[in-house]
Write a structure and sequence with these properties.
Number of domains of chain A: 1
CATH topology of chain A: Nuclear Transport Factor 2, Chain: A
Number of helices of chain A: 5
Helix content of chain A: 25-40%
Shape of chain A: globular
Strand order of the largest sheet of chain A: 2-6-5-4-3
Oligomer: homotetramer
CATH architecture of chain A: Roll
Largest sheet of chain A: 5 strands, mixed
InterPro entries (chains A, B, C, D): MICAH-like, NTF2-like_dom_sf
Protein name (chains A, B, C, D): Phosphoribosyl-AMP cyclohydrolase
Order of helices and strands of chain A: HHEHHEHEEEE
Keywords (chains A, B, C, D): Signal
Distance between the termini of chain A: 84 Å
């Protein structure tokens, strides 16, 4: 009856007999997950502390070396522009779209960026983040929330921070947007 | 010390004291999942059987009505072209990019499509699918594998089928590519 | 010869004769473009000025009505959380993830948000933006740059602003992330 | 007045004076375009002809070498499963999810795939494609249409073909879905 209706040739019987075996589906999934985002945020904080530690122990050259590793591993500068607005950058150097501007921000010691004192050199000892919301869209995830950093004296700095993470082909997450700002002071 | 190094104004103390409370992150996730894809494949099979049942019970007008509902709910014709290559379509009418061509394929009775006998009217009673692989990319998922359909006489038809499903804003999955073909006959 | 090599049945001749006609490809494109992003940024500024004008001309109720239209058309609150960190929001109300918090920020007059004086009510007369960089990924685009607003007295306010725009199924762009902050004051 | 209304500190004046200079926006765009898709389709056809030519001139080893280059450059096997349903594959070997199955299909000479006679070895001389529709979604594009191949005797083979191309980080397009089938024969 199928043959009459659907004009299926006789070879279908063979295909039916063969079936597709017990092959289970292989799955490729390029999407980013909330768990990956949290791990990347945690790694960012740990990296900042590592740069601080390296600076304290070994000086600026080793700290810069570490910062370059962090930038290359955790940011998307190798792929193109990064939308980076650091907490303490301002004026014509507010946005650090290229890698050299980001490096100057983190470790200073660059005469092209005279206002940069090296944010990652400030003796950071611990880190925590609190996402207000997470937005996941394909291989890109956005977060906005508070980040807290504590220094060697136990003083805490809080910033308002938005990030966009892009998952690359190797499964690593890279920061492609990073907007950080000091809390607004209403009574100021 | 933070004040000296980072030039943080005194109002930070207030912000620190306030904290962000116990707000947990809200998550928006636009991505498609493998489970959603399987559910959509299951639903496609059930819909095909429903059109067959409707046709047997109530005739072509009710069957067409049901088919239109299925097309509008499960395919992306409302959003634009659908890349549909039905199993038994050929020649200049091989590709059913617009809704009317898809409707003709499923329920026939359209003089503009004289070769269409109505694929969904063929008394289908059961359905199963076997994905060889699934590829997930953002809100779009691709599948390729075997689909089996059994009619009232117990005869099984097997087809090679690829689908692309797009997850819409309401969370529903829509077919935007559907390439179906009879198995190749090597000894033919 | 094709038949011998490829085991193609005779019916191929028919298909070849039919060809596919002169059908040109229909294209569905869900991606966002830089031009669409710029238009959305322009529209945001115009909407802010319209709310200011409405407030001056007709008072708070009309201004709120306008602000609600803007929120519903230009932001993604209808689809879920929006990652909104307004310029002048702080403390526990820093992030306006839900629509009511965004409305309070723009037009104030909400006792649940006592610090909100209504950012859109401040007599804004003109608007410009300057993107430092734009990052386009599927139906989502990120921008970071300066935005300038001028009030009735000719005084200009500048903010550092990052946005994420999501293109919806109707082709409209919706803000899903909006982080705005006052410029950092290095000498402070 | 701004200071009164918005509580903007005096340093804003400095920022306003500095401005953002004449920096124009840098744009990162990860999206795939229709032009890139057409170029990839053209390249696929050229590669097929090259394998045929290599086989005729230098034998199977050189042809296989070329085919491996093509697979590695034009398909996504290096990143994971590819949803490949070749025109003339059937039974338990219908789907060539892994690279070795694809290689066997194109150049044969693999005892694990006894039905494969080597599709790329069949003396192909020219190539054309005709997309019925193209669907673009982020870095992924789908096509469905006819592909025509002509051999040394001038005989043309037509197939119905769907592809999904994924744009990688280096900007190269890779095939992640490839469903090819002989035209259905209505009178058969």
């Amino acid at each position: 009856m199928i043959k009459r209706n659907l004009a299926l040739p006789a070879f279908i019987a063979t295909a039916l007999a063969l079936g597709a075996g017990a092959v289970s589906a292989e799955v490729v999934n390029n999407n980013i997950t909330e768990a990956e985002v949290k791990a990347a945020q945690e790694a960012w904080g740990q990296a900042l502390i590592q740069i601080s530690d390296r600076y304290a122990a070994d000086g600026i050259d080793k700290a810069r070396e570490k910062a370059e590793q962090v930038l290359d591993a955790a940011y998307g500068y190798g792929q193109g522009a990064v939308l980076f607005k650091p907490t303490l950058a301002s004026g014509e150097q507010t946005f650090r779209i290229a890698r050299e501007g980001a490096l100057a921000y983190f470790v200073g010691h660059d005469e092209s960026y005279p206002d940069d004192s090296g944010f990652a050199l400030k003796g950071w000892k611990s880190y925590s983040f609190e996402n207000a919301a997470v937005y996941i869209n394909g291989d890109l995830a956005l977060t906005t929330g508070h980040v807290r950093l504590t220094d060697a004296d136990g003083q805490e700095t809080i910033v308002d921070k938005s990030w966009a993470f892009k998952k690359d082909e190797q499964g690593a997450l890279r920061i492609v947007l990073h907007h950080s700002s000091l809390p607004y002071a209403p009574g100021y």
